[in-house]
DNA sequence: AACAGTCTTTACTGATTGGTACAATTTGGA
DNA sequence: TCCAAATTGTACCAATCAGTAAAGACTGTT
């Protein structure tokens, strides 16, 4: 009765999508077993810590993705304007023009915030820091750069909320281009 | 064993705070009975529709509050600059400088979004419309005014997410004053 | 003081929750 | 080919879930 099809790393994106759709509390084990195709036995084999460990793993993978695709390019690129532009596009794609939620943002508003407080904090802090680096290389002083970066991350999260509330992906894209211009101008 | 202490309207603010802290799914009836001091019997007496009706009532009350304190002043004031300034302050107070969540925004990101879609939609649509009215009276054309209003509501919701994620009320206040200046300038 | 209506308590339902235990099975390596 | 480790299915647990039912107690009116 064992098939060894799945690896832990294959399951995590599925878990991520489940948590995005149902939230942490709403993602019941029955939903998870159904969507992953894995029984409780397998699930608890891969994640002995249960749901909490699954969510941790998902948050870690999200953090790795952003570190590689967004934060590092912003920090290390020699062409900051290009880096800002291309990471903005990557973010728009990642969130599927506002049709996809930011799991970290959703967790921040949820009552599970405290449980994952440090990972949530790190995610946004790293984002603001990386963007601030790029802006400083673009000529802004440290204070102005951090202010602008803060404003940009706020705009992204806000646009995700409003776009979903109004079921209006165009609004998200509009907000992203507006932000992109404001950063590079 | 009946005391007739509570009225339906007295319970709603308590329910609102519970939903804010626990979310819709997280607000179990046991939490609700405990915090309201009302047994299930009383709860189902006031809200025959159960939790869903409680949430509806809360959303309606929130909408009424914003209509009276925010939307109407923005729409009807003869001094739009003053109206924008004072409603910005009212919003900052309402959200307790980012320490308090926007329940509607949280619902928008939650999987209960579809269940309350129309009320969530109306809440933000009314906000943007009202703010756009005030901005037009300030001299902006319709398109520019709506764009600015959109941007402002996005900034508020985003600031709520980030302020809570970073546990940083100062960030929320900073975002609000920045926005206030940007609207009136 | 009796009444009807409002409110509350209590006990209960069946379903579902997250989690555990463990045997059965498959797998890769020697 | 055989064995230990990895993987999985199933049955089970106590706790909690939202919701129901109905009898009791309080209220104002007459």
Short note summarizing the structure:
The structure is a homodimer of 185-residue chains. The first copy, chain A, has nine helices and no strands.
What does the model show?
2 copies of one chain form a homodimer. Chain A contains 9 helices and no strands. By secondary structure, chain A is mostly helical. Chain A has a domain at 59-184: Tetracycline Repressor, domain 2 (Orthogonal Bundle), CATH 1.10.357. The model of chain A has no long low-confidence stretch (mean pLDDT 94). The structure holds a DNA duplex (30 and 30 nucleotides).
Distance between the termini of chain A: 60 Å
Mean pLDDT of chain A: 94
Largest sheet of chain A: none
- Assembly of the depicted chains: homodimer
Coarse structural class of chain A: mainly alpha
Keywords:
mainly alpha, Tetracycline Repressor, domain 2, homodimer, 77% helix, 185 residues, DNA-binding, 9 helices
């Amino acid at each position: 009765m064992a098939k060894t099809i799945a690896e832990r790393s294959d399951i995590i994106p599925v878990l991520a999508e489940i948590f995005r759709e149902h939230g942490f509390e709403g993602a019941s084990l029955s939903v998870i077993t159904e969507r992953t195709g894995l029984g409780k036995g397998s699930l608890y084999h891969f994640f002995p810590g249960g749901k909490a460990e699954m969510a941790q793993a998902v948050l870690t993978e999200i953090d790795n993705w952003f570190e590689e695709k967004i934060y590092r390019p912003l920090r290390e690129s020699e062409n900051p304007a290009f880096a800002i532009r291309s990471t903005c596009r990557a973010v728009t794609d990642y969130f599927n023009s506002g049709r996809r939620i930011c799991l970290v943002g959703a967790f921040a508003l949820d009552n599970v915030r405290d449980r994952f407080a440090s990972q949530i904090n790190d995610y946004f802090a790293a984002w603001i820091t990386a963007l601030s680096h790029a802006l400083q290389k673009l000529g802004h002083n440290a204070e102005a750069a951090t202010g602008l970066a803060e404003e940009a991350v706020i705009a992204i999260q806000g646009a995700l909320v409003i776009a979903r509330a109004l079921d209006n992906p165009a609004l998200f894209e509009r907000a992203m281009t507006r932000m992109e211009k404001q950063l590079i101008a």
